[in-house]
Amino acid sequence: MYAFFNRTERRTLNAINEFTFIQYETPEAGIARIWLNRPETANAQDTRFLYELNAAFDRAAHDENIRVIVLAARGRHFSSGHDLGEKNWHAAMHDYPTVGTMCGFTCAGAEAQMAREEEIYIGFSERWRNIPKPTIAAVQGKCIAGGLMLAWPCDLIIATEDASFTDPTVSFGVGGVEFFNHLWEVGARKAKEMLFTSDALSAQDALRLGMVNQVVPREALEEATLVMARKCAAKSRFALKMAKKAINGAQDAQGRDVAMQNAFHLHQLAHTHWLKVYDFLMDPTGLPEATRKALGIKLGDEA
Ligand code: ZN
Predict the structure, then answer these.
(1) Taking the model in full, what pTM does it have?
(2) What are 117-141's pLDDT values in tens digits?
(3) CA–CA separation, 53 vs 266, rounded Å?
(4) How far is the CA of 8 from the centre of ligand 1 (A)?
(5) What is the homologous superfamily of the domain 22-295 according to CATH?
(6) Ligand 1 mean position to 220 CA, how many Å?
């Protein structure tokens, strides 16, 4: 079961100097490509994984020679979401330099969880959404929950025919992932269906709804993504920045950012609720049995 942690002294901060779960490369002039490289877990995201990814995005953002950033994934699946099996995830927040302005990562009550999620979940995803350069996600296989929080912040998405997109969090008693962008991705009615049913959205449905730009055979994903990246990279870096800021700003003028903060606070209420009921961040009765076993959670009627 979920065990509370002790306050720990802030340790020496571990700036990301080398990558374990991420690969960074510049396949062509003007294009940076970031690989999610933890295929043995279907690119599950723990604290180090997310700080490495953030460092990779920062490297590409700050490099004046880079005009377009590609986010791709090694292995069968784009990402299985947050790594629920990570140990000591609150203490782990003290291992890296904080990017946002929050603190209290190992405090009692709701404060620690909220601070962690403000920093590495909604905080990182919003930060990547607003990088002033075009970003393109190349998605194959499953993209689940936290996986959406890597693909959705990108400006363009190219998916393979077998790609699928799922937010199953309502099954676990939570109203949606922390980066609550569903409405802006697929419209209100489909967003509700995704959330209420936990059903996967197919690549073809995502294309029809405008959530992805292209659907291609799996073997064509890398080249199709580079073709798109080359077209963008041929344009003025400053013009690309202005076009992106204009569209992102229009979404926020429609209330996107305020609505997302509202949903994020409800998400925190859900965590606090389930901590009181089950001493766990979500409703374990909705988790697959294998996941419960892996986490060492036993329900009342389970031996
Ligand atoms: Zn959460």
Answers:
(1) 0.93
(2) 999 999 999 999 999 999 999 999 9
(3) 26
(4) 22
(5) 2-enoyl-CoA Hydratase; Chain A, domain 1 (3.90.226.10)
(6) 34
